[in-house]
Automatic annotation (TrEMBL):
Tagged with keyword Transmembrane: no
Organism: Sphingomonas baiyangensis
Domain Rieske: 8-110
Keyword Transmembrane helix: no
Alphabetized PANTHER family for the sequence: 3-KETOSTEROID-9-ALPHA-MONOOXYGENASE, OXYGENASE COMPONENT (PTHR21266:SF60), IRON-SULFUR DOMAIN CONTAINING PROTEIN (PTHR21266)
InterPro entries listed in its UniProt record: Cholesterol_7-desaturase (IPR050584), Rieske_2Fe-2S (IPR017941), Rieske_2Fe-2S_sf (IPR036922), VanA_C_cat (IPR044043)
Name by which UniProt lists this protein: Aromatic ring-hydroxylating dioxygenase subunit alpha
The entry's keywords: 2Fe-2S, Dioxygenase, Iron, Iron-sulfur, Metal-binding, Oxidoreductase
PROSITE patterns, per the entry: RIESKE (PS51296)
GO molecular function: 2 iron, 2 sulfur cluster binding; dioxygenase activity; metal ion binding
């Protein structure tokens, strides 16, 4: 499977990266070492020494530099070798790749494409732990499955009716109704009303509004709220004002990062708005999320095993696959543009 390279991928949680500690990560099957200096600056380099290819993640931080602990080569934050013990001449090409990094919304974002195209404005607008309006919990899962399969799962919520009956308590309305789907420049938007049903956010029947953007390279940003029965009809099924919600206003940020072929890491945070809940509710929601996302993991990894043993695997789309199809087409178009030498670099990133 192929993935867009000119995009910001989540490498990890900001809170999990200690100072002066080289940490190995893998994104798109590339070995990367990431570390934080004492002043908080985060740097990411190719995790492969130019001398004998030892991992730099086993190295030692020296200020904003990183020393390979095999034969002592010292790299600066740009990836250039600045010292070779016992040798005065340093080859000009003694360097490793440097990856642009941004710390935002409590996540570490790494740009995997052309560094000249690394645009901070393309970081998806998630909600982090520094947002005072929400009380969030967080987690992550490693999948033995392609990231694209996880993306497909997040783009089609009809599976809630069957995979998540024990966790989210979703009714078959999720499978039998179709949301409103619209295209965005770098993703899709999915909006829907579930009318006159009770759910985990409310013991009483209500109209539940939910909306989420699914953005490149694989980031879900979702919110919603509960309203009196009849609100959806009164609004003509148009989007409501979240400030008018009775309860259940939450935000979830989820990110899918391909690590190696057939493997991915799934990051998630979820919690209530401060006027709709407290830390106890956030903890309860995370307990539900842990159960639900384990259910997703079980079915998707099983799906991957079947795909791996199926000659020429093909799917039969249904009408529930509209968002999946739109997002897949976007990815395919951008991947083709990235590999087209006929287009200028910036045009390849945009198209």
């Amino acid at each position: 499977m192929h993935y867009v390279r000119n995009a910001w991928y989540v490498a990890g949680w900001e809170q999990d990266l200690p100072a002066a500690t080289p940490t190995p990560i893998s994104i798109l099957d590339e070995l990367i070492v990431i570390w934080r200096t004492a002043d908080g600056t985060v740097t990411a380099l190719e995790d492969r020494c130019v001398h004998r290819l030892a991992p730099l993640s086993l190295g030692r931080c020296e200020g904003d530099r990183l020393r390979c602990m095999y034969h002592g080569l010292l790299f600066d934050a740009e990836g250039q070798v600045v010292e070779i013990p016992g040798q005065d001449l340093i080859p000009r090409d003694a360097r490793v790749r440097r990856y642009p990094v941004i710390v935002r919304h409590s996540w570490l974002w790494v740009w995997m494409g052309d560094p000249a195209l690394a645009d901070a404005d393309l970081v998806p607008p998630a909600v982090g732990f520094d947002n005072p309006r929400y009380i969030l919990g967080r987690g992550q899962l490693d999948y033995a499955a392609e990231a694209r399969l996880i993306n497909d799962n997040l783009l089609d919520f009809s599976h809630l009716s069957y995979v998540h009956t024990a966790s989210f308590g979703a009714s078959e309305t999720w499978a039998r109704s179709r949301p409103k789907i619209s295209t965005l420049e770098r993703g899709v938007r999915i909006e829907r009303w579930i009318e006159n049903e009770q759910g985990m956010h409310s013991p009483e029947p209500n109209d539940r509004w939910s909306t989420y953007d699914f953005l490149l390279p694989g980031v879900l940003l979702m919110t919603g709220g509960n309203y009196p029965v009849g609100t959806a009809a009164r609004l003509g099924h148009a989007p409501p004002d979240l400030e008018d919600a009775l309860s259940g206003v939450t935000f979830t940020s989820q990110a899918v990062t391909p690590t190696r072929p057939g493997q991915a890491r799934y990051f998630f945070s979820w919690g209530p708005r401060t006027d709709m809940g407290d830390a106890a509710l956030a903890e309860k929601l995370m307990g539900i999320a842990a159960k639900a996302f384990a259910e997703d993991k079980a079915i998707i990894e099983a799906q991957q095993r079947v795909i791996d043993r199926t000659p020429d695997p093909r799917i039969m789309p249904t009408t529930a696959d509209k968002a999946v199809t739109l997002f897949s087409r976007l990815v395919d178009r951008l991947v083709r543009a990235e590999s087209s030498p006929a287009l200028p670099a910036r045009q390849r990133a945009a198209h």
